[in-house]
Amino acid sequence: MILDKIKNRRSIFPNQFEAETISEDKIMTLLEAANWAPTHAKTEPWRFKIFKDDSLELLADILKTGYTKTTPEDKFSEFKLNKSIEKVMQSGAVIAICMQRDPKARIPEWEEIAAVGMAVQNMWLVAGEQGLGGYWSSPGYITELGAELKLNEGEKCLGFFYLGVFNGPNPEGVRTRIEDKITWV
């Protein structure tokens, strides 16, 4: 049942990934699932940039540059920088999650962002079926990475989806009761 898959979806972090590569076929299956997300006015705003194998080092350099360029000296943390690079290098692939704004701006931007979020949820659900773990992270300096990621006019990067082979049991999920979050009108 789809509800069971939704309830069992979890963030799996790069330090939990196995040191295995991920085939392009598996990544394409994730992206095909993403492509079927709901989208108002059929704008299909999701865009993805895939980093795997040797290009993971390129992404690590991009993140290092972004963090170094935007972090004031008194807030700079070598530990935090190294953790960012480590997450990339522990991953089988990293997908930059981007949004291409409708050039006609026919719908509100938040709806475009929501459509991208739904595309990522589709990827996340399929990742679990494929024995892959995933984790979406958006560093504070993400808005400064446009040139390094070669974003198009009107395109924004919303974060990175770290992806890796995961053989362990999913962590148990916890949610408060839905009844505490609804009002019948």
Write the layout of secondary structure elements.
Elements: H1 2-8, H2 24-34, E1 46-52, H3 55-70, H4 78-89, E2 93-100, H5 109-129, E3 132-137, E4 155-165
Features:
NADH Oxidase, alpha+beta, four-stranded antiparallel sheet
Quick summary:
The chain is of the alpha+beta class and 185 residues long.
Question: What can you see in these coordinates?
Answer:
- The structure is a single chain.
- By secondary structure, the chain is of the alpha+beta class.
- It has one domain: NADH Oxidase (3-Layer(aba) Sandwich).
- 36% of the residues lie in helices and 17% in strands.
- Strands 1-2-4-3 form a four-stranded antiparallel β-sheet.
- The radius of gyration is 17 Å and the shape is globular.
- The two termini are 29 Å apart.
- The mean pLDDT is 95.
Summing up helix and strand content along with how strands pair, one would put the structural category as alpha+beta
Q: In CATH's first tier, which class applies? A: Alpha Beta
Strand percentage: 15-25%
Q: CATH H level: which superfamily? A: NADH Oxidase
Number of self-contained structural domains: 1
Shape by Cα distribution = globular
- First-to-last CA distance: 29 Å
Query: Which strand order does the major sheet show?
Result: 1-2-4-3
Nearest-angstrom radius of gyration? 17 Å
Total beta strands: 4
